[in-house]
Amino acid sequence: MRSNIWQIVIKRVLQAALAIAIIVLIWQVAVIGFGVPAYIVPLPLAVAGAFVSGWETIASHTGFTLLASGLGLAVSALFASAIAVAFSVNRTLEQTSMPIVLVFRATPVAAVAPLVTLFLGRGINTSIVVVTIISFFPILVNLMRGIAASDPNAAELLHVYGATQLQQMRLVRIPFALPYLFTGLRISGTSAILGAMLSEWITGSPGLGKLILDSGEMRETEMLWASVLTSVIVALFVFWTTSAAEKALLRWKT
């Protein structure tokens, strides 16, 4: 199973490399053709030089962003799973609590992050909380849809055999909800990277967000673009890795 996952990941990486090569070619032609100044958009070769000369810095900040994103995504998945199961078991709880969840979702993250910073300080903990807030709602909604979309015939069969509600949840509803869980993770995975970077912009904690901010203030345009491209590559990697894990782990669905 692990080999299947890595085969899919390698295939996605090769596809991404081809897409990046095409984008770089268009970038080169556009900058030269339109005469864009280097302090606004540098040539791809200059950005590649920033990658080479500052790879240790980029790798270090990328590690912080990935760690915060991964931990926040895991926490949000755990909370969303528990709440989705609770809502499916108790409809009154869902009707009572969903407005609170919607209000929580509608609150701008940029307004919440400074408040979180006051309690947790300027560190990775704030980034984890911000990522959790951003990632929570898409996973919850998809899981609730998945649990509700379970096979009624299978549920009825278990009911005939006297299965408890917990057994029905474990044997039917949760397995049928797993594809929806991965859909939520794909949506939230890319948002998690942006959420971690937003937290880094606000708090000044290490990460790609801070590296982009510092590079812009220092007028290091090549490093700025190298950091932006790194964030895009990381977000695509998270998306494709989640898709590959879904295909490898949910082959039973086909």
Could you describe the 3D structure shown?
- With 254 residues, the protein is mostly helical.
- The chain has one domain (2-253): MetI-like fold (Orthogonal Bundle).
- Helices cover 86% and strands 0% of the residues.
- It contains 10 helices and no strands.
- The chain has helices at 2-34, 44-53, 55-89, 91-106, 109-120, 124-148, 152-160, 165-203, 208-217, 221-249.
- It starts with a helix and ends in a 5-residue tail after the last helix.
C-alpha geometry: globular
Major beta sheet, specifics?
none
CATH architecture: Orthogonal Bundle
Radius of gyration (Å) = 22 Å
- In total, the number of domains comes to 1
Roughly what fraction of the amino acids lie in strands?
Answer: under 5%
Label the structural class: mainly alpha
Spans of at least 5 consecutive residues with low confidence: none
CATH C-level? Mainly Alpha
Summarize the SSE layout with pairings.
Elements: H1 2-34, H2 44-53, H3 55-89, H4 91-106, H5 109-120, H6 124-148, H7 152-160, H8 165-203, H9 208-217, H10 221-249
Helix pairs in contact: 1-10, 2-10, 3-4, 3-6, 3-8, 3-9, 5-6, 5-8, 6-8, 7-8, 8-9, 8-10, 9-10
How would you summarize this macromolecular structure in one to three sentences?
The chain is mostly helical and 254 residues long. It has 10 helices and no strands. The protein has a single domain (2-253), classed as MetI-like fold, CATH 1.10.3720.
